[in-house]
Design goal:
- This protein has eleven helices and no strands.
- It has 276 residues and is mainly α.
- Helix 5 packs antiparallel against helix 6, helix 8 packs across helix 10 and helix 9 runs antiparallel to helix 10.
- It is globular, with a radius of gyration of 19 Å.
C-alpha cells in the first residue's frame, strides 16, 4: 500500500523519501519538545529564551500538524498534499537554520544541523524524483504567471536585501543584530533566494516554475501565519507586551502570500480530486 500511493507521484526513491520525511517530522517535534522541557538549559540567555520558546510551541502545534496532514492527503492521492508536504519541509528547514546559527550549545548545534541536513536532502530527492506529468498534466492553470512570479521575486529580494544589509552592518560593526536575529536573517537569505528563483521560473511560464512557486507560496504563508501566532502567544507565555501595530503590519504583509495562495489552490487542476 505504501508503495502504491508513493508511486502515483514519484518515479524513484519512494521508500527513502517516505522514511526521511517521517524521521524529519519526528526529530523536529522531539527537538521542539526538548527545547521546551529544558528551556533554561537550551536557551542560555534571556534573548534566546524570549525569541525561541514561543516558537517551539508553534513548531509542535502548527508546523508538525501541517506536515502530517499533507502526508495524509498524499496518501489519499490528493495532489495539494504534495505541495503542502514540500512547503512544510521548507518551513522546518527555515526554522532549523535560524536555530542552528543562534542556539550555540553542543546539543542544539548537532540536533539542528541534522534536521537541516535531512530536510535539504529530502527536498532535493523529492524535486528530482517527482513525476511532473502526473502532478501537472495540462497547461499551467493560471493566466497571470508574471504577477504571481513578480510577487515572489519582489518579496524575496526585499527579505534577502534586508538580511544581507543587516548581516554586513553587524559584521562591520555599524549595526547590532541580536543572536536570534542573526539566525533569522541567515534563514531569510537561504530560503527567500528560493522565492526569487521560483518566481523567475514562473514568469518564464515553466511547469516546474509553477510547482516550485506553489510550494514557495505555501511555505511563505506558513511563515507569516507562524509569525502571527508567535506575536499572539509570546505575550501569553512570557508575559510581554502585545505589539498591536507590529501585528497589524505582519497581517497586511501576509496577504501578499495568502491571497495568491488561495487563487493558486482554486486554480490548481485536480487539487481536491483524487487521481484515478
Amino acid at each position: 500500500m505504501e508503495r502504491d500511493y508513493m508511486e502515483s507521484y514519484f518515479k524513484r526513491n519512494n521508500t527513502l523519501i517516505s522514511i526521511l520525511t517521517w524521521v524529519l517530522c519526528l526529530l523536529f517535534a522531539a527537538n521542539s519538545m526538548i527545547n521546551i522541557a529544558w528551556s533554561d538549559i537550551i536557551y542560555q540567555s534571556p534573548e534566546l529564551y524570549n525569541s525561541f520558546l514561543a516558537n517551539d510551541y508553534i513548531n509542535i502545534f502548527f508546523g508538525v500538524p501541517i506536515l502530517v496532514i499533507s502526508l495524509i492527503l498524499v496518501r489519499h492521492h490528493i495532489k495539494l498534499g504534495l505541495m503542502g508536504w514540500v512547503g512544510s519541509i521548507l518551513f522546518v528547514v527555515y526554522n532549523e537554520i535560524a536555530y542552528l546559527f543562534a542556539v550555540r550549545n553542543t546539543y542544539s548545534m548537532i540536533a539542528n544541523a541534522i534536521i537541516v541536513g535531512i530536510g535539504l536532502i529530502t527536498i532535493i530527492l523529492i524535486l528530482i524524483s517527482i513525476d511532473y506529468t502526473k502532478i501537472l498534466d495540462k497547461e499551467i492553470p493560471i493566466k497571470r504567471t508574471t504577477v504571481y512570479g513578480l510577487v515572489l521575486v519582489i518579496m524575496g529580494l526585499i527579505f534577502v536585501a534586508r538580511a544581507v544589509v543587516n548581516i554586513i552592518s553587524t559584521v562591520s560593526g555599524h549595526g547590532v543584530l541580536t543572536v536570534p536575529e542573526i539566525g533569522v536573517n541567515i534563514a531569510d537569505v537561504v530560503i527567500c533566494t528560493l522565492w526569487i528563483m521560483s518566481g523567475i521560473l514562473l514568469i518564464r511560464k515553466t511547469k516546474l516554475g509553477f510547482i516550485i512557486s506553489f510550494i514557495s507560496y505555501i511555505q511563505g504563508s506558513m511563515l507569516f501565519l507562524a509569525l502571527m501566532f508567535f506575536m499572539v502567544f509570546q505575550p501569553i507565555i512570557l508575559e510581554t507586551e502585545f505589539l498591536v501595530l507590529d501585528f497589524a503590519v505582519i497581517v497586511i504583509m501576509s496577504l501578499t502570500f495568502l491571497i495568491p495562495l488561495f487563487f493558486l489552490i482554486h486554480k490548481f487542476t485536480g487539487a481536491f480530486d483524487k487521481n484515478p
